[in-house]
Amino acid sequence: MAAIFSWFLIPAAAALAAGNSNWLTSNFSVAGSESPGSFFLILWALLTGGFFRFLIQRAVSMAGAGLASKREAALTDLALLLLLVSVFIPYRPGKMKLLASVHVALAFLATVLFYLAITSLDLKLYFQYPGHFSLCTGLLGFAIAATAALLVLSGFMISSALEFFLTVFAGLWLWLFCRRIRILKRHWL
């Protein structure tokens, strides 16, 4: 079931949230500021945020003593809350500048917290089992480079292309990470 979400539903939700605007000059907030985009933005936030939370909770419980801290789960809960609040705040920079700024700040902070959580999870297991988690760690390094490239291509704005990449990457990365933990756990028993 996680594979279906990671490979198909999460990318589809992200594509719907991006809408049919130019993905390098627009973003999910702009696409979601008008109907039916607002529905797709909320759907995307609920689907991806809930799924990412589920996979992180699963990774923490599967790894057990290897991930003794519940800090990453708490960071993920906070990120999900900030994301959900942000999509319910209208993004209308021309009419409501303060609310639009709060919307952007919450969405950005949610993304940062979420990526801090998965990076922390990865590094904890990478330092314990470098051969087993080097692919996951390398992919996070790739995500940093791809994020920088997308920022340059979009003129240093948070674009739909960047949001789509970060969403799809996180879904696939978490799916792979949980698979790696499951494989490693078989060797623990």
From TrEMBL:
Secretion signal, residue range per the UniProt entry: 1-17
UniProt entry keywords in alphabetical sequence: Membrane, Signal, Transmembrane, Transmembrane helix
Top-level taxon in the UniProt lineage: Bacteria
Residue stretches spanning the membrane: 41-61, 73-92, 98-121, 133-152, 158-178
Protein name per Swiss-Prot or TrEMBL: DUF998 domain-containing protein
Organism: Enterocloster hominis (ex Liu et al. 2021)
Top-level taxonomy: Bacteria, Bacillati, Bacillota, Clostridia, Lachnospirales
